[in-house]
Design goal:
Blueprint lengths: L1 E2 L3 H12 L9 E2 L2 H11 L3 E5 L7 H11 L4 E6 L4 H10 L3 E4 L4 H12 L4 E2 L1 H22 L5 H11 L4 H8 L3 H15 L4 H10 L2 H7 L2
Length: 215
């Protein structure tokens, strides 16, 4: 199914797709509401959806279609490689994101790719996705230990290494009682009940990176 508010664009896409022996355009729509109605009626394998539509956006249409028809794959088609729109499309459930500047065969390959159940991004914006994912991961790791003081992070790192309170006290030049207080505070702040759970939490959220970066 093709969704674009410009009839000329839809005609061009239909002509391109109809030349492919294994593909057929079963429906067209010019706005988000029409897109959901026709997608529900025709249940297409793939929807090629313009990200900018009048009224509700292509992002909204993508979300509605993906929620209503989980088997249908959506390819977002856009003239602009905008980061914010890209990540909104991915969050909405888009399986592919292709620039309108791409060649006709690139779009055909994109349709074939998502129809197989694979995800696809235009190569020019793939690296941006990885950058954003890495940034989000770092932010989550930082938040995971945001309640701990720097000293508590150091203590937790040593707990995660399996160190005893006595060993931690020696390494950090603290009294054992002070270390016990730190450990108790850490367990409380992280919402875990024992040292093993605290150690597992530290490893899961990459505490070593957080301690080394000083975040």
């Amino acid at each position: 199914m093709l969704v674009d508010d410009h009839e000329v664009v839809r005609l061009g896409l239909r002509a391109l797709i109809d030349r492919h022996p294994d593909m057929e355009v079963v429906a067209e729509a010019s706005n988000a509401a029409e897109a959901l109605t026709k997608a529900t009626a025709h249940k297409p394998d793939v929807v090629v959806l313009d990200i900018r539509l009048p009224g509700a956006s292509g992002i909204d249409a993508c979300r509605d279609i993906c929620n209503s028809l989980p088997e249908t794959k959506v390819i977002m088609l856009t003239s602009y490689a905008e980061d914010e729109m890209l990540f909104a499309a991915i969050r909405a459930g888009a399986a592919g994101y292709v620039l309108k500047q791409a060649g006709g065969q690139d779009l055909i390959r994109a349709i074939e790719t998502v129809a197989r159940g694979d995800s696809l991004l235009d190569p020019s914006i793939t690296e941006r996705v990885f950058v954003e994912v890495r940034k989000a991961a770092r932010q989550m790791e930082s938040v995971a230990f945001s309640k701990l003081t720097e000293q508590e992070r150091r203590v937790l790192a040593l707990v995660a290494e399996g160190r005893t309170n006595r060993e931690i006290a020696q390494l950090l030049h603290l009294g054992e009682g002070t270390v016990r207080n730190y450990v108790s505070s850490i367990l409380s702040k992280l919402g875990v009940s024992n040292r093993a759970e605290a150690a597992a939490y530290a490893i899961r959220h990459n505490l070593k990176d957080s301690v080394h970066s000083g975040s």
